[in-house]
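S.,

Sequence below, as promised.
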Amino acid sequence: MDALWHMLNALALPFGVAAFSALGARLLWRSSAAACGLLSLLGWAYMPAVVAHAVAWAVVGAEGTMIGYAVMVSATALGLWCRLFGPFRPPQLAKT
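The prediction came back faster than expected:
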């Protein structure tokens, strides 16, 4: 049971970072984010955050390091950039 709570806790931090990032992206870039749903932005932010968190945890060997948090936030920003402005933006925004 302790292992389950530890894994859920490890997944909660990237979810929180992704949720706040997706909401911030919706507020800051309304025209670009209007073509994307909030759940879509959350998915594009959460997956890179989880991967970065796991990789940082594996490389550093400890959860909760500042370098791990920095990598997670950077990966979240990169995922949102790819969806809103990069190669995976919606087709209706690609022509601008």
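The chain has a mean pLDDT of 90.

Coffee later?
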